[in-house]
Amino acid sequence: MSPMQTSTMVEMLTPIWQRVLQLSSVDVDDNFFDLGGDSSLALQLFNEIARAGGRELPPVTIYVAPTIAALAAVLEQPADLRFPPLVLLKDGSTQPPLFVTHGLGGSVIDFFQVVKNIQTSHPIQGMQAKGIDGTEEPFERIEDMAQFYLDAIRQVQPRGPYLLAGYSLGGLVVLEMAQRLTAAGEKVALLAMLDSYPDIRYLSLAQRVRLMARLTTRRAANAMKIPAGDAISLILRPSRQRSLTPRVSYRPPADMPLSPAMQRARECAYLALTRYQPRFYPGKIRFIRAETLTDFPADPSVVWGRLAAKFEVETVPGDHLGIMSTHYEELASAITRYMREA
Fold first, then answer.
1. Which of 96, 83, 178 is nearest to 128 (CA)?
2. Are 268 and 131 in contact (CB under 8 A)?
3. pLDDT, tens digit, for every residue of 238-267?
């Protein structure tokens, strides 16, 4: 990269950083997170970069290139630049690492606030969805996701014990990873599933009936607040679209659409969710449920208790999205405790 190219890229990035972070000046070596950046602002930052420079990068790139100078260098790389499946979210001196997996959105940037508040000397590695950088096709099966991540984490940690945590769709992924590790004779010291459920078709008949009754009641109540045509569409929506898991693990602002690559990764992840049927796990699952019910069963023990040798559940404040975006301190506290006990 020539000095002229570097200068041009820095000139493009600097006003974007200033605008997103609402700062009058930003030095090329200032760290995004030290300036007050978070996951929401990272999403905004990379959407603006895509519009200004015509180059789409996943928001998690900010962990790899947290300064204007570093990001300018990344943007000068070839368009088919690929990002590794593991992203170091938090450094640490104690082994083994904690590996965390994304939700339907595909990006571990969602873990920003949670990871920041986890009190541990262990490093925390985020497992990043294949294809979110737009260079490869995403997986459409949980089993393929699990094997992809296992191949990556074995490069960092060849043997157990392993510490795994997954949010929403990611809970199913780490469950499948734990199944494969256990079958290979490895020890899984922690398997934490964060408000994670299978598709509705894999619940028992009684569970489906109770859940659909609650969701129908809620939709009917919501229909009173929206135009009649929209209400009918909402209530009569095809069952295939009434997944237990929200289509994304975060809500970007209305004027901030997902990039085509992230949208494609989300669609493939949703397809993987509908296809995956959990099987019995001969170990222990530590489950964290959201206190405020959304599109999920009221009691996760009824769903998962029969699918694990040991199942423990606790509740944190917020709904499915809020446990990550608003009540992250409570969620981080629970994960901190799990790691100490593991």
1. 83
2. yes
3. 444 444 443 333 344 434 456 677 788 889
